[in-house]
Amino acid sequence: MADAGALWEKHKQFMCEDFLRDARRTHPGAVLDVGAVENCGLIAMHRLLEHLNHPLSYYGLPEPDFAAEAAQAEHRILAQQRAYNPETMRAVVASKRASSNADQITSFDAIKAAVDDYLAEVASAAAAGGAPRAARGWAARQARPRCFFLNGPAGTGKTFVYDALLAYVRGLGQIALATATCGIAALLLPGGATAHNTFKIPVEVLTAESLCNLKLSRPLSPAVQVIVEAALLLIDEAPMMNKHAYGAIDRSLRDITGVNEPFGGKVIVLGGDFRQCLPVLKRGQPAQIIQTCLKRSYLWPEFKVLKLTINERVKRATAGAEPAVAAAAAAYADYLLRVGNGTEAVHPQADGTQADCLRIHPSMVIPEDTSVEELVRLVYGDGADGAAFASTDRQHLYSRTILAPRNVDVDAINEAALQLFPEGTDTPASPAARVYYSADSVGEDDEAGTNTFPPEVLNAFKLGGMPHHELSLKKGAIIMLLRNLSPRDGLANGTRLIVLNLYKNLLETQVVGGIHDGKVCFIPRITTTASEADMPFKLHRRQFPVKLAFAMTINKSQGQTLRNVALYLPNPVFAHGQLYTALSRVGDPRHIKVLVKKGLRADGHTYTANVVYGQISQDD
Fold this sequence. Notes:
The chain is of the alpha/beta class. It is 37% helix and 18% strand.
């Protein structure tokens, strides 16, 4: 390029107009700094060109101000948390309360009382000249708890309670931080983000002494200030996160607030179901996995457990149905609890070589000789002999899926589904189908990998959480994001999207599901890095951070409600709660089918393994 600097000066207004529009949306009525908007454009170009290992000045372009960009990003955090309309929030609370069941009202009232008590204490300290709040002793914390665990089986309406609590606090003009341990659950919460991103929880190394990566210098940064000012902290799908993460949050909040009691004396609500998936510990043994759980944390005795027992998912799924259908759904909810608790009848193995096998209800079982292609037709089409896809409407694709325990099985299903998926229309810039290939490399400091492994070997690696070297897509196909690109805009790890256009260097997609449903987003190629413990090098892969999502792993489905589900078990489940999590994605047993390839067939029934750690799943 002859003169990139001159091109920038000529076209920077048009190149940065999207950043200007975004700033106006985030800060309505604010006086905007044109220089700050242009700086956003320079940073975007820097990120697009950084893989070439040259600064922007090498191309004759101005260097961006990264410090200013970081400050603007942090101030946006405070602005977003204070942007809620109190009157609207109070109306949400009234609406939620009017349609709540008895368990939800009891839980809401208990947490509301704790928030009111906390705010009164903060106001009292402020009236006394801002003196540090005194730490409460054990007896006071037990009498007036501020740590809660909202415990409810899948479908009992935990998110409904979260929404009411968030609206209540925001209706008071206070800050409520809504987070979840996984991206897809965070997207279901208004103003949600991942817990790791909000609290800056360490990812690579997490120990019993870890602290969050929060800047504690004075004055506090906006990212820390928003935590200090928060009247409510909420973390959904809490059992999935390692106990050391909660310890890190606890120690950091004590340091930030100066209050030496759990979580700095703040009101914190954790929610989830211990029958579902637990923290992932690579190659971990059951005893090791159990020791990573929240229930094994020194903080667990501080939590008051609130229970939800009424299955709202079943009620919604059978609304207006015949009495026999409603009764079958209620029986299914009871069956799920027995599966999750490990109390459902099993067929013992005489040789002791595998876990006891749990009986799958006959109405769910499909023949073991069913092919993957037939399974796709069953879930997405008009039946095994009908059209492979009855509709390519995005809601049709979003409301159903095929679940499997392992990534390798999910990949096989997705490949088969893509072959059956109808092709759209070609355009000059965006064909109906396209194959994208990654650029793989080894870190410069990994001399052994650089000298030993040719590109073909690097291309062959298929690692969890990393896009494949060869990515085949079609217009209209459903895909899943593998990285947190912009959680504020709905682009989080686990977000499902519909492909609109397949450009050479860009994917045009549309978010499906959650509070960002229908939003059009552009996905660029990014560089992801994998450093597996059993790999002698770090693999860098530049590829679109997505994968097909006609099927997904059981763990990825946690927190989602679906209409039609098939569970594919070429091999039995291998981790606690996987079978329960998969079966509980629907509230109506008519809408779930199970294909067991390697199971036990006896007495005219089909059995499969069910892994349950009873000391964790049983209610306290």
